[in-house]
């Protein structure tokens, strides 16, 4: 039985993988799935609760299918904080699938690129104006309500997931090659090279990562775009994270370099860097794959913490971290809980899914289990 079959027989790992696939597909197709522009406010639509879907007409009592009614915000009770909702029951608006709406470019990708690190469109995307669902007759269907600016919370949650979901992937792409290279060089050459690299790694590991992130996040220059902040957060987190991986890889390389095939490559005059890259580091692939899967949640958590305290992605650009920052307002937690629970639950589910998948990969790729 190979590792893939073993992984498929692990229901928790399979659940984590399916959940991650759903999340990544959703955030990649956020423009299509989201009914509205995440930056556009609705008139008189501040802090609306999730839209209630009706099946029976409120005026005639007849069954007319799923529909909503135009809803706006009324006056606020200054003593209790309750907000009056004004619902126009005379205008039923059917809920439709595949409706036209704001234009967008599906799968468009923009990144801050050198030399000026300005946001540049890498993939132009496909121009479309179709959305997965929506309401007719000018009514709005806010699945998760609206925020204090009257913006659709569900649309912002999907678009914000792009940052929160991909910051871990990009962080691993930067951190793991650096940790593999430094750990491989340290373990293979030994001596003063090993001492210097390991002392640097130990110094980095002594820094409390959260406090260092907060300190570095606070000194980021003002006026940075969200893409530039995203890149800097990834770089800062990656610089902190490579040290632990390098120490583990060094220990494995110390054992691997004494094996016969490495000694043979060295006797044949192989270049040390070539031997490390071609013969030594591939032997650590099992650990690296498992460790990479388990490392992604730490990057997601770092972004969420920085954005939560206002040092990460800035408004109006959404991310799960800065959407969760409203939790610092006690009145929001009590009166508008729909603004807090969705990003919190998604962060928890994403971290849980990566951990379940990582545990499943560890069991499936364990050499001792494969030999048995």
At a glance:
The protein has helices at 3-8, 11-28, 30-33, 153-189, 191-206, 209-218, 226-256, 260-267, 272-280, 285-308, 320-324, 330-335, 341-365, 367-371, and strands spanning 54-56, 63-68, 71-76, 83-87, 93-106, 109-113, 118-123, 126-135.
Describe the structure.
This protein has 372 residues and is α+β, with helices and mostly antiparallel strands. It has 14 helices and eight strands. The protein has helices at residues 3-8, 11-28, 30-33, 153-189, 191-206, 209-218, 226-256, 260-267, 272-280, 285-308, 320-324, 330-335, 341-365, 367-371; strands spanning 54-56, 63-68, 71-76, 83-87, 93-106, 109-113, 118-123, 126-135. The strands form three sheets. Strands 1-2-5-8 form a four-stranded antiparallel sheet. Strands 3-4 form a two-stranded antiparallel ribbon. A two-stranded antiparallel sheet has the order 6-7. Helix 6 runs antiparallel to helix 7. The longest helix has 37 residues, at 153-189. The radius of gyration is 25 Å and the shape is elongated. The protein starts with a helix and ends with a helix.
